[in-house]
Design goal:
Blueprint lengths: L10 H11 L3 E2 L11 H10 L14 H15 L9 E4 L1 H13 L5 E6 L6 H6 L3 E6 L8 H7 L4 E7 L11 H13 L4 E5 L24 E6 H4 L8 E4 L2 H14 L5 H10 L6 H18 L5 E2 L7 E5 L8 H12 L1 E2 L1 E2 L12 E5 L4 H11 L3
Parallel strand pairs: 1-11, 3-4, 3-5, 5-6, 6-7
Antiparallel strand pairs: 2-8, 7-8, 9-10, 10-13, 12-13
Length: 375
């Protein structure tokens, strides 16, 4: 008997496989197709010949933990203890999984804001807890009346994602004030803040739980080197949480993966001194602006993109098909793979919107939009 009977193959895997079958341009799955930083390549080549191939400590390479603490202070003005409040994880997904498994008890509830990334629900179900799916407004901003109505004494976690995948929206000061009020009202409630796109933001600044002193003792943040440094295949991220909470997360982490790739940690430890994270947003803003400019020649309506490397577009003016059928036809007839937004909702809400990944080289974006012009 399956413990996850209704969960099948991820839509990201499905669309990437479909793209391969039809030799389509893949703008579906969120990974860059351009080379990583040459400096990082040189660091890896040098390290490969050094004695860095055995286990690191379970929590992470101490020097890298210290540099993450410094990065957090520089980025957000928050001091965290590298020895007790930071954990290196095998990607953000492992951090999310370990956190939920460690903190959520059988019978408790976890609020998920839809549309939501698909890795949140499984660890909740495996904890014998209940996911409570609350839809964002149609403009993808939080519906605080619905969130408050869904939160009760059984609610252990609320999962937030800012900047938001799949929509590219970012939370406002008002949203964080509402979240602080919610946490104050419910003493058992913790915040799991998925911030993997924290450095990929554009015109407006990213607000983090690290900025919110009232949330420090009640929040767990998730970050991703893979997203920030275009190395998604390395599967390396980190979690920041108060020591009392982190102790519980580490208990799960040590039996889930024990420790993370030593080569990746040593490489990032050297690389982080050479890179300016403030440049990441500017780099992707050029990608976003280029893609949006090219897309003006299509019949698709582009929604605002405030952060992440995803662009949502409405095809309502082109077709009344459901978004799953429309994306399949985009692959088979036009040779471009995208993601249907309805698959990020538990109830399949369909606004006739699709998601593109613009973390691609210029030729890929040019060729894709030329095909989309034929719609």
């Amino acid at each position: 008997m399956s413990k996850l009977p209704h969960i099948g193959t991820s839509i990201f895997t499905v669309m990437s496989q479909l793209a391969n079958e039809h030799q389509a341009i893949n703008l579906s799955q969120g990974f860059p197709n351009f080379p990583i930083d040459e400096r990082l390549i040189e660091i890896v080549a040098k390290l490969s010949k050094e004695n860095v191939h055995q286990y690191t400590p379970m929590s992470g390479l101490p020097s890298l933990l210290e540099k993450i603490a410094l990065l957090t202070q520089q980025s957000y003005g928050r001091m965290v203890n590298p020895a007790s409040e930071i954990l290196i994880t095998a990607g953000a997904t492992e951090g999310i999984f370990a956190t939920i498994q460690a903190l959520v008890q059988s019978g408790e509830e976890v609020v998920i804001l839809d549309p939501s990334y698909d890795c949140y629900e499984a660890p909740i179900l495996l904890s014998n807890a209940k996911p409570i799916r609350v839809s964002l407004h149609s403009d993808f901003t939080p519906n605080w009346d619905a969130i408050r109505a869904a939160t009760n004494k059984k609610t252990r976690l609320i999962i937030i994602n800012n900047p938001h995948n799949p929509t590219g929206k970012m939370w406002s000061e008002h949203d964080f004030l509402q979240l602080e009020n919610l946490v104050e009202t419910h003493p058992n409630l913790l915040v799991l803040s998925d911030e993997v796109y924290e450095y990929i933001r554009f015109e407006q600044p990213h607000i983090s739980v690290h900025h919110r002193r009232k949330l420090w003792d009640r929040s767990i943040s998730i970050s991703s080197f893979g997203k920030s440094f275009h190395i998604t295949g390395w599967k390396i991220g980190y979690v920041i949480a108060p020591e009392s909470i982190m102790k519980e997360i580490k208990k799960v982490h040590q039996f889930l993966v024990f420790s993370v790739s030593s080569m990746a940690q040593h490489a990032l430890n050297a690389y982080i001194d050479q890179v300016d994270v403030t440049e990441i947003g500017r780099f992707y803003q050029q990608k976003r602006d280029r893609f949006r400019q090219l897309m003006q020649a299509t019949k698709l309506e582009l929604l605002p993109c405030e952060g992440t490397y995803f662009q949502v577009a409405s095809y309502a003016g082109i077709s009344d098909e459901n978004d799953v059928d429309f994306t399949r036809r985009l692959v088979t007839e036009f040779g471009v793979a995208t993601i249907p937004i309805s698959t990020f909702y538990a109830n399949g809400t369909d606004y006739h919107c699709i998601r593109f990944c613009f973390a691609k080289d210029d030729d890929t974006l040019q060729n894709a939009t030329e095909r989309l012009m034929k719609l």
